[in-house]
Amino acid sequence: MDAEPDRWPLRVGETLSSHDWFPFYGHKFLSSSFLRRAVKQDRREDVGTALILWAEAMREDPAGTLPTNDIDLADIARFATVEEWLAVKENVLHGWVPVLVEDGRSGGTIERLGHSALIEEIVQDMYKRKRGRDAARDAGRHALKKHKIRKKMTEMGVEAHIIENDRAILALAEHFEHSELYITPDNVRAAMAEVLEYTGQVTPISSVKRN
């Protein structure tokens, strides 16, 4: 009985499509069995095709994988016909093996091709960095929203105890984040009524309305 393919570290939807570069581990490449075999067999053109596949894999979903279908692979590798692709397939896919990819939408897995020796470590590191940058960008955007809300509330003459209430401001910021409304006096006033149940009375808000 054949062993089940390894699972790829990234799931469907986890991509690096916005990146136009990726690190290249030169020492690993120069000492790889793929390069030695290509040179000894006088198939240096296979090196170029392999590099195209590695670069294209970074743009695939999930990052670092390739499809298993020869029609798709021929297209990705820039061959005019599937027959031309099949003539080099065995050599240029050296190191690529079937992997299972989790699909959160269906709850199942799909099979793709992955390269554990040269690609897997790269995409894991790059995706981790991407998530860190995304989180920092989201935090910065959220902080700016809270600042704008506080500034607008101050201009509107809202009581200081409301402006200084971190939970209230956080709830308002999340409201504007999800509604995509501009932070205007009218929208802030409406959000305070909807989210905080603010009536305009000078009374402390002991708790923020929870959804």
Automatic annotation (TrEMBL):
Stated name of the protein: DUF1376 domain-containing protein
Originating organism: Phaeobacter gallaeciensis
